[in-house]
């Protein structure tokens, strides 16, 4: 599998509007962060996109990605969904809509907010077909596992994709480690994990929680993502264990 970190920043990105870099060094290019998303590519070339952030168009252009075969949404918050219209171009030339998956409540909210994407409108074709995760076990040659995670008062979906004995887990926007997460990520080869800041936060994982999750599920390697302006890349690299990588936009990983 090939995994690309398309975006590694929190909901406001880094820098924030107003050229606010916080503690991040503006001269370090890996501190420039767009909103979170990843792409997972299988050994047969099938590509899964996780989330459609507002920066999706630029992320796909920067990483020279012109084809996606399926989209998985973690939840319906704006920083994870409001680039959904950029799927229109990925629909061009296809014989049918893109395949999309989300948990029941996320799917309901996406259909309500972006009806034209999933049902077409004014003669325009349906861009994506949206199915729920209820009985999903395989997609595009990947084994798929998932569970719901607390995200403050809301929920976010964790995903685990496996192929040829290798597994990659994705856990963004969670505020508590649950037994379901530990079961899902048990022994995972690569875990891409929410890590908003160093101090605890009511709706996101902080550095200590992310490292605790990696240890409890015995992850082979962890990549930190959803980083805010307090998390300077080089400073954070000096703080984390050898089996942890500080994520950045454009980071490519091979399993």
UniProtKB/TrEMBL annotation:
The keyword rRNA-binding does not apply. This is MBL fold metallo-hydrolase. GO terms for molecular function: hydrolase activity. CDD domains: metallo-hydrolase-like_MBL-fold. Signal peptide: none annotated. Keywords: Hydrolase. Residues 47-226 form the Metallo-beta-lactamase domain. It comes from the Bacteria.
């Amino acid at each position: 599998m090939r995994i690309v970190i398309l975006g590694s920043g929190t909901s406001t990105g880094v820098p924030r509007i107003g050229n606010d870099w916080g503690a991040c060094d503006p001269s370090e290019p890996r501190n420039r962060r767009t909103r979170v998303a990843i792409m997972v590519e299988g050994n047969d070339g099938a590509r899964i996109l996780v989330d459609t952030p507002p920066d999706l168009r630029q992320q796909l252009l920067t990483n020279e990605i012109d084809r996606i075969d399926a989209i998985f949404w973690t939840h319906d918050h704006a920083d994870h969904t409001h680039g959904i219209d950029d799927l229109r171009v990925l629909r061009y030339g296809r014989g049918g809509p893109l395949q999309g998956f989300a948990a029941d409540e996320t799917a309901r909210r996406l259909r309500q907010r972006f009806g034209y994407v999933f049902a077409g409108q004014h003669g325009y074709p349906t861009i994506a077909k949206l199915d729920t995760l209820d009985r999903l076990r395989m997609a595009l040659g990947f084994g798929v596992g998932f569970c719901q995670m607390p995200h403050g008062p809301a929920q976010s979906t964790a995903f685990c994709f496996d192929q040829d004995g290798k597994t990659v887990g994705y856990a963004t926007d969670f505020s508590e480690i649950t037994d379901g997460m530990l079961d899902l990520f048990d022994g995972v080869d690569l875990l891409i994990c929410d890590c908003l800041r160093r101090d605890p936060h009511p709706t996101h994982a902080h550095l200590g929680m992310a490292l605790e999750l990696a240890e409890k599920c015995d992850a082979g390697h962890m990549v930190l993502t959803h980083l805010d302006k307090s998390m300077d890349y080089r400073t954070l690299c000096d703080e984390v264990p050898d089996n942890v990588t500080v994520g950045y936009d454009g980071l490519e990983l091979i399993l």
